[in-house]
């Protein structure tokens, strides 16, 4: 006899912390939009109850022109009390720029797949890990909190499956090097319930105390099922992107990031708090759709929450 | 300490039976297509390893013009050995037509929500249940297998939440009346992991032996998470629609049925057999997209399975 919903719900987290990544991970895969629109988007997100927003990345403008105005965006938004804003830095130079800009939470990236890492930053995973050692020391010395995002944690579009043991050894290394937190990036939507569970089986056992965050793309429709498994493992931190902003570079037309409102919608229905006002978030998703001028893939944006009723037809 | 993936997988079914509903539930919500194209679609589906196909419905052509050619479609397809083809009948007249056409598996429908039932068939749920008593007797006498689909089992777009006790009492009634099988219809995509679990908690306890089938729409992105919960309850039968054929009448632009290839993709990755050749199914999804002449919402159709690799960029 399987446990009832009441038993299951009691074993799940009471609260989940969502990091909104639409302004960074989302917009970097959309056609560039004006600086003023980015500021408008972030300020709107700051009013939804979200407690964490990844605002910008400090990456070379030739690599990602969408983030060329990172400093201006960061200096122009209205920073709300109680919200943790963070920036992504692909290398030491970016990390220093993020520190100079005043960020105290900084994400750095390495790809578990060597081919993917070489395609991203023209160096082997091992070389990136060596640079990470230096970056993590710089961040720690500056008093900033560091998070290492392990891209392609659930598979690589060039290499296919990435062995869990390889991801695990990267975690071992960066934890030793002083990473404060770890994020697993489902870069091209290859995560499945099985892959999530298999990875967490290993990592949770090896590093029971380090905070873990999961970042899913909904490329193959499985994002919320992956979240469900992660919740059962006690994971309480997830990335998501308002409206599902952000495409998938390897699959034109495929949906990218998990939409924040789909995540909030499912969690609230399960009785898990997020602090987010879903109606306010949906208004921002509408704004995001206007700003990028395309229909975003979020189902909850299209159809509305399940609690939003349709007027009864005449005569009923 | 939560169980490992190996423990979890061992507790899941080894095999799932998928009923393909694209030709019926899918096409009835698309713009009408020619009879020859419907035949082509069903014949293509018959070659994918699917073991069950809901082929047509016998409904008044004024209500659903897309199914006006049900007899012709059914008489013209090439029925493959080992595939169970079924038809949906909304009323006694439709059930008799389905029997006359030679169907031996027939789905009948009642909506758990009274408003939804009245909107569909202009009568109260109770009145439909009275007619079901008669239909089930006719089907049993004819030696056909009957399935009662309980629409709006997870919520009604007009009434909102439908109490589990109401769905459960409908099940009690139709089981007493001789229904061979029960399907729970997530008519407008209001199911969530919680709602699925809460319903199965009650129904599984009351009727441990009757076959149950779950029919999810992906309107709010939760379809595969709902499947995951249902698998944990031992459910082994699911509806799905190739390519995600079929819109949602209450939410223009929202995705409708769970795409068969997204379901197969997740199940196979979990080591659960379906008998379906995913590559063959994807070719049919492409065909379906051509036949309805619009981009279908299936992520696995867009991006390909996670095992389909991208060629490495030059120099890597």
From TrEMBL, chains A, B:
<dbReference type="InterPro" id="IPR013785">
    <property type="entry name" value="Aldolase_TIM"/>
</dbReference>
<comment type="similarity">
    <text>Belongs to the HMG-CoA lyase family.</text>
</comment>
<feature type="domain" description="Pyruvate carboxyltransferase">
    <location>
        <begin position="16"/>
        <end position="282"/>
    </location>
</feature>
<protein>
    <submittedName>
        <fullName>Hydroxymethylglutaryl-CoA lyase</fullName>
    </submittedName>
</protein>
<dbReference type="GO" id="GO:0006552">
    <property type="term" value="P:L-leucine catabolic process"/>
</dbReference>
<keyword id="KW-0456">Lyase</keyword>
<dbReference type="GO" id="GO:0046951">
    <property type="term" value="P:ketone body biosynthetic process"/>
</dbReference>
<dbReference type="InterPro" id="IPR000891">
    <property type="entry name" value="PYR_CT"/>
</dbReference>
<dbReference type="InterPro" id="IPR043594">
    <property type="entry name" value="HMGL"/>
</dbReference>
<keyword id="KW-0479">Metal-binding</keyword>
<dbReference type="Pfam" id="PF00682">
    <property type="entry name" value="HMGL-like"/>
</dbReference>
<dbReference type="GO" id="GO:0046872">
    <property type="term" value="F:metal ion binding"/>
</dbReference>
<dbReference type="GO" id="GO:0004419">
    <property type="term" value="F:hydroxymethylglutaryl-CoA lyase activity"/>
</dbReference>
